[in-house]
Amino acid sequence: MRKFIYLLLFPLVSFSQIQLDSIGYLLKHKQFDKAEMQLTFYINKYPNDLRALELLGDTYGHQEKWDGAIDNYKKLVDANQNIANYHYKYGGALGMKALAVSKFTALGMIGDIENSFLKAAELDPKHINARWALVEYYMKLPGILGGSKNKSLKYAQELENLSKVDGYLAKGYIYEYDNEPELAEKYYKMAIDEGGSLWSYDKLTTFYEKQKQPEKALANLEVAKSKHQRNALEYQMGKIAAEYNIELQKGVQCLQTYLKNYSPEDGVPKAWAHYRLSQIYSHKKNKTAALKYIDLALAESPKTKSFIKEKKLILSL
Length: 317
Hints:
Blueprint: H1 2-9, H2 21-28, H3 32-45, H4 50-62, H5 66-79, H6 84-100, H7 103-107, H8 110-123, H9 128-140, H10 149-162, H11 164-177, H12 181-195, H13 198-210, H14 214-227, H15 231-244, H16 248-260, H17 270-283, H18 287-300, H19 305-315
């Protein structure tokens, strides 16, 4: 029966004809279950194809199936100990699983996680992601287990030597995590001055939001919008206006612009923009408009708890 299903799904495709290049397309379009099925089918015939094993590990990772990702990345490490990215991905999958299991179980994984990231950094002196992983690993790990701000700063400096933007962002992260907001802000701004990437602006915006400084967050987004014509920035500005009850008219304009120019690549569904508009009109005490927009949000996503709660609040106005 199972053989029949495979023949039904792939009537003209033999094992050797499956093109691994097509898997990238499936991953890009988030068709993870289809990618997993095709790769599993392929690997049954070619179990030593390292590229297929890596793609299957990536596919499991996208689905947060960490055991499957760990198993495939471990096969890669065992097959070739000299590929930095294999160690990095193996350590990353172990780290993600450690977050999902009990603390006692996670303790037993710490050594393998650290060794994998260190090996990746050793094998490839220019491996930026491995150094980012070590920055975060040493900051989040308790000191009694080997965590260390100084170790994090060491790898942040290595990042800076490779890429000033990454180094500044890493130092911003370290100081933010260590509750030194002045230094964190300084380095996030240095990252913006150095490269002006959208990622850098986003880090500073998120920092300001965590610091309960929405006015600064909005001002930073305004600058980002002037340099990066991204519709997603319109939503972010509307979201801050709605959440903090500031610059409400600007928030309305931004959200309406977001809806007008919306495409799936923007990331945030239209329902959430309608929800933010309902919040803004609630702040304005305009019950009719608030109900209009929350009903639009609920029409798209009727089970979203935030939307249901918001409608109850509006009805009580």
